[in-house]
Specification:
Strands 1-3-4-2 form a 4-stranded antiparallel β-sheet, with helices on one face. Helices cover about 40% and strands about 10% of the residues. The two termini are about 45 Å apart. Among the domains are: about 1-55, no CATH class; about 70-125 and about 270-305. By secondary structure, it is an alpha+beta fold.
Length: about 300
């Protein structure tokens, strides 16, 4: 059973939030696993933290389309854009809108003051996303490796460019993506030593028409093209390095059904989230400049929201 997550903060804090906020849920998720600590029984919290951390596998490559924004920052930006668009629509319906702009802005400043924290640009600056079709869905594909290819694959993944230069930046509709190698542990942890093969895990949140493997075909095809020059697929079984079609066939067969799939911003595609972050920044720049606020017009607000 694979547990994949994108979260804000350090891993210890993330695990502790699970332990404190839904202890029975933690048991439901991990309780059937070999070596379970018995949590939430008394005096098992510390043991559980160590148990989970021993089972963490490093992501050799990780990409986030909005890497500098926290989960709260994304929710806040989406609310700012939603409220601002609604206000612009209301003003456009008014017979004499300009005198109403200043009071509307004052009201927005009060209601959205906790949503206007600044978000720094990522290294390399903000880039236009390659848009996909549909809204965000999760996909996890586990590709078996050829014998003895773990080191070669790890080296190839380590050479992948990071941040906005990541190959996944060119895969349409990608919110988050990770590549990780799972292999038999050599540290004596017996309940992790039962794997007969090593695997490359491709986990992503991507805009698609649905969550079925067939809906992910455009993502798989684009991922093959983006990573093919980096000699990644030659380490996997199934001759997936030969063509996009061969990779799509293997990736679809190796896609895991998602038993539980949670996302913080359902129904939003990567373009909408990045646009909301832009609107938040531009609106915040108006709010923090006292000289700009009284002079802001309806046309200025239209320009901010892109109407």
């Amino acid at each position: 059973m694979l547990f994949c997550a994108n979260f804000t903060g350090e891993v210890d804090g993330y695990i502790r939030v699970f332990m404190e906020s839904l202890p029975e849920g933690v048991h439901d998720i991990w309780g059937p696993a070999v070596g379970w600590t018995g949590f939430p029984a008394p005096v098992t919290a510390t043991t559980l933290l160590g148990w989970v951390k021993r089972r963490l596998f490093e992501s050799q490559h990780y990409y986030a389309a909005y890497s500098t924004a926290s989960a709260f920052g994304v929710r806040a930006a989406l609310r700012v854009r939603r409220e601002l668009v609604s206000t612009v629509c209301d003003l456009e319906m008014a017979p004499d809108p300009e005198p109403r702009v200043a009071p509307a802005l004052a009201d927005l400043c009060v209601r959205l003051q906790h949503c206007l924290g600044t978000i720094d640009a990522p290294p390399g600056g903000w880039t236009e996303p390659v848009l996909g079709a549909g809204t965000v869905h999760g996909v996890v594909t586990v590709l078996p490796l050829l014998p003895g290819h773990e080191r070669g694959l790890a080296d190839a993944l380590g050479r992948l460019p990071q941040g906005h230069l990541s190959p996944f930046a060119g895969v349409p509709g990608t919110h988050f993506a990770r590549l990780a190698i799972i292999h038999r542990r050599e540290d004596g942890d017996g309940d992790l030593g039962g794997l007969r093969n090593s695997y490359l895990v491709l986990a992503a949140d991507v805009d698609a028409a649905g969550a079925k493997p067939a809906d992910m075909v455009p993502f798989f095809r684009a991922t093959f093209g983006a990573l093919e020059p980096h000699a990644i697929w030659e380490h996997c079984r199934g001759n997936v390095e030969r063509s996009p079609e061969a990779f799509v066939n293997v990736a679809r067969r190796c896609t895991c059904p998602l038993l539980a799939d949670y996302r913080d911003t359902p129904g939003q595609n990567v373009g909408a989230i990045l646009d909301a972050l832009r609107v938040q920044r531009e609106f915040a720049s108006v709010v923090v400049d006292p000289g700009r606020l009284p002079a802001t017009s309806l046309d200025d607000l239209r320009q901010i929201v892109g109407r």
